[in-house]
Recover the amino acids of this structure.
């Protein structure tokens, strides 16, 4: 993200294509300016936008009409200086007159030094250039100079595109380029060769011969910083060919390419000529079939971004400048471990820039990271901290080191798997419940946020080990638009999701009455071994997004009521958008959970200004809307909830799936469930079959940690052989939850199993087939199983006495669901 004053990127006539590519990478527009010549050849410049106090970058390459382009650059710098630009950086991919960098003859000028002086006098504050012909040119300046490298681009291309490069050799065409060539060879871990250029004083033609290295039967890769006429390249290529090189590649930083020598370049015995677009190359590509252009726009754009943000440019080339990074090491040709994968990863990561973010917008849409859930700095750390805190709290409860754990930063209950929603990125509640289920047989989730806890409900929609109860506002269009009274789970999780939809303005008395009634009945029926309580504070009065009229005391009373069940309790935060009231609420509820009494007057802190006017813990939260929840409507909701809870009789003995060792076990089980659903719908490819999954060892949960080991609900019946006489049978909706014995299966097959049960209520997900044999389980539906006499239903035993010593009878179930005229 760019910070401070904005970037202004200008360019002259030298290389507008590169400037436009850099601007796109930075996700900015080129600053419009008019550069033209008068009839006498003088240059005129007019900048058409204000650059006052802006960070100005002027991209102008030293190519083509070098003198004209240099003059344009100097005038642009001067114009920005007089227009009060905050900082002026000259970006010169190909530095002009770089080859005239020393006095090698009498009366010879050092023109590169002159250019440096002119840039400073014109008003430059900083220079960014690329692959200087000689590194000492940086010392010609009295201002900061950053010299970018193209070698990483070259190395990347060699590794990607040149076959057999590991058996290759890097060649320098002269002694001046030996340092560059040896550095690339070291990076690639291959050999190096040096060609010596020899002239003749009597006018004989120049010739080259290989001074160092053996190129015979190898891939020869010539590297140089600049090519103009191509004469040096031609001599070097012929020397390599005469030396027995198998193939020849030439890689050059700045391809000036004189058009008069195109025929020479085309006839050279090389496979490819690689140049960068530090100077314009579009007009050359059509005429040179061997020409390949490497793009330096990403490197230049990143250097501009880092300069603007005050970041280090040298870190761009840290591995190149300081030695091989971990991604540049190599185990061996045939070894499967490739450290180079880290270099690829890093390139892809830093490849996401403001310039190409629009191309990746679909990825943001996929995970719903849009208006409500924007991507922001350090988002990963934020989600890791609050989700990790909920997981840590759950683990403490499982370990028994605490009875109550609190994470006010958690409670983000809208997030789904692979989808952010409603300000929530990671659903820490789901992760915490999954952790609790590794130890606790049944978990009750209670949500008192004004918004429906849709993410948690959806995660456990088909589970009978998690009961979700949500008290929320529901109008059909209030976010998230879910949580109807009739939404109560699916499959084996039918009736294990309870929703209490409320209207605007509910007050303390109405809320506490329905909360205590519903939660009391739910705990009695479900008998949880752990509870997770989401305490969203947007259900308070005067919330920015909420419309309830709850006081902090009433909100805290809900917490206190749940605490009194003396069940392991995880308390998390949630919504709440009037900040000073949220902090008051959670402070009070912390005192409730730890059993401390706190005064109403707030202590003095650095945030006193947030609580100005009264400085009390329990301010009056005057309701903004009238209570639209009538007593009759609340009673109707209560009756409906009680009717659903009737189906949970016997819930403490529900069949338990084997507890997975960790979260991976849950994910594997979810994949298996998806495959089974596909089979049910005939979606499995032809010819495939599934082996029946093994039965869990602990078919019923049996542990000292089960809080529901009530002696009065268990009866031991001694049986001998097969039960005879008037055999009892269940007439209700319930199904046998145990594995059917051999005799029971035979009885069902012979028609003695009784009539089929009535069809259950419609569900949104088809439950898995359950055996109707007379096993250890008994139906949860209407009525105790009765035979043709009045005896209790007893499961038929197998022929083996040692396997039928005990039969567990579950608590009796009412014969009919409650009628709607019952009072709560």
């Amino acid at each position: 993200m760019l910070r401070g004053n904005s970037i202004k990127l200008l360019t002259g006539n030298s290389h507008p294509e590169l400037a436009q590519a850099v601007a796109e990478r930075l996700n900015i527009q080129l600053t419009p300016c008019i550069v033209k010549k008068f009839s006498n050849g003088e240059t005129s410049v007019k900048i058409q936008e204000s650059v006052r106090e802006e960070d100005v970058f002027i991209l102008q390459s030293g190519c083509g009409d070098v003198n004209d382009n240099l003059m344009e650059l100097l005038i642009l710098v001067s114009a920005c200086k007089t227009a009060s630009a905050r900082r002026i950086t000259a970006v010169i991919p190909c530095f002009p007159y770089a080859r005239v960098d020393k006095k090698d003859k009498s009366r010879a000028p050092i023109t590169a030094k002159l250019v440096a002086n002119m840039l400073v006098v014109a008003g430059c504050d900083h220079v960014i250039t690329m692959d200087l012909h000689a590194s000492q040119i940086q010392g010609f300046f009295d201002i900061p100079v950053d010299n970018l490298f193209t070698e990483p681009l070259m190395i990347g291309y060699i590794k990607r595109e040149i076959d057999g490069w590991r058996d290759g050799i890097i060649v320098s065409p002269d002694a001046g380029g030996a340092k560059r060539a040896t550095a690339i060879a070291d990076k690639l871990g291959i050999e190096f060769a040096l060609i010596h250029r020899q002239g003749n004083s009597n006018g004989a033609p120049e010739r080259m011969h290989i001074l160092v290295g053996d190129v015979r039967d190898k891939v020869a890769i010539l590297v140089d910083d600049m090519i103009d006429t191509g004469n040096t390249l031609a001599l070097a290529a012929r020397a390599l060919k005469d030396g027995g090189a198998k193939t020849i590649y030439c890689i050059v930083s700045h391809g000036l390419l004189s058009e008069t020598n195109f025929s020479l370049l085309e006839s050279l015995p090389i496979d490819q000529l690689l140049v960068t677009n530090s100077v314009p190359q579009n007009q050359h590509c059509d005429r040179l079939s061997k020409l390949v252009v490497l793009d330096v726009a990403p490197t230049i754009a990143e250097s501009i971004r880092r300069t603007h943000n005050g970041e280090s440019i040298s870190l761009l080339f840290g591995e190149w400048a300081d030695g091989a990074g971990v991604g540049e090491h190599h185990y061996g040709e045939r070894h499967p471990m490739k450290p180079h994968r880290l270099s690829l990863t890093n390139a892809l990561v830093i490849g996401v820039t403001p310039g190409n973010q629009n191309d990746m917008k679909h990825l943001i849409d996929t995970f719903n990271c849009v208006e409500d859930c924007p991507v922001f700095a350090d988002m990963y750390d934020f989600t890791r901290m609050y989700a990790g805190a909920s997981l840590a709290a759950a683990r403490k409860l499982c370990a028994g080191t605490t009875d109550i754990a609190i994470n006010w930063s958690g409670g983000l209950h809208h997030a789904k798997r692979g989808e952010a929603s409603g300000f929530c990125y990671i659903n820490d509640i789901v992760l915490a419940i999954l952790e609790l289920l590794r130890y606790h047989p049944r978990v009750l989730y209670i949500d008192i946020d004004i918004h429906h806890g849709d993410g948690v409900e959806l995660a456990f929609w088909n589970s009978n080990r998690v009961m979700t109860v949500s008290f929320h506002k529901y109008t059909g269009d209030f976010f998230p638009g879910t949580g109807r009274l009739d939404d109560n789970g699916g499959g084996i999780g039918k009736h294990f999701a309870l929703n209490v939809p409320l209207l605007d303005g509910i007050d303390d008395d109405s809320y506490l009455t329905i909360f205590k009634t519903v939660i009391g009945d739910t705990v009695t029926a479900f008998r949880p071994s752990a509870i997770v309580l989401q305490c969203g504070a947007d259900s308070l009065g005067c919330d920015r997004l909420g419309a309830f009229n709850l006081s902090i005391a009433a909100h805290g009373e809900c917490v206190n009521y749940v605490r009194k069940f003396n069940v392991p309790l995880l308390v998390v935060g949630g919504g709440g958008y009037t900040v000073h009231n949220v902090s008051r609420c959670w402070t009070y509820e912390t005192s409730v959970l730890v059993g401390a009494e706190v005064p109403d007057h707030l202590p003095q802190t650095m945030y006193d200004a947030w609580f100005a006017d009264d400085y009390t813990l329990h301010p009056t939260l005057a309701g903004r809307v009238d209570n639209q929840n009538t007593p009759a409507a609340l009673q109707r909701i209560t009756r409906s909830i009680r009717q659903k809870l009737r189906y949970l009789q016997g819930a403490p003995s529900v069949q338990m799936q084997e507890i997975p060792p960790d979260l991976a076990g849950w994910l594997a089980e979810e994949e298996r469930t998806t495959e089974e659903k596909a089979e049910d719908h005939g979606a499995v490819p032809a010819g495939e079959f599934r082996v029946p999954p093994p039965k869990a060892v602990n078919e019923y949960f049996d542990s000292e940690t089960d809080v529901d080991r009530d002696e009065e609900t268990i009866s031991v019946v001694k049986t001998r052989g097969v039960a005879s006489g008037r055999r009892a049978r269940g007439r209700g909706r319930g199904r046998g939850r145990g594995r059917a014995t051999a005799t029971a299966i035979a009885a069902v097959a012979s028609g003695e199993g009784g009539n089929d049960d009535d069809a259950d209520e419609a569900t949104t997900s088809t439950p898995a087939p359950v055996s109707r044999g007379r096993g250890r389980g008994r139906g949860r539906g209407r009525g105790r199983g009765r035979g043709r006499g009045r005896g209790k239903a007893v499961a038929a035993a197998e022929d083996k006495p040692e396997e039928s010593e005990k039969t567990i009878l579950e608590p009796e179930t009412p014969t009919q669901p409650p009628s709607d005229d019952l009072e709560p």
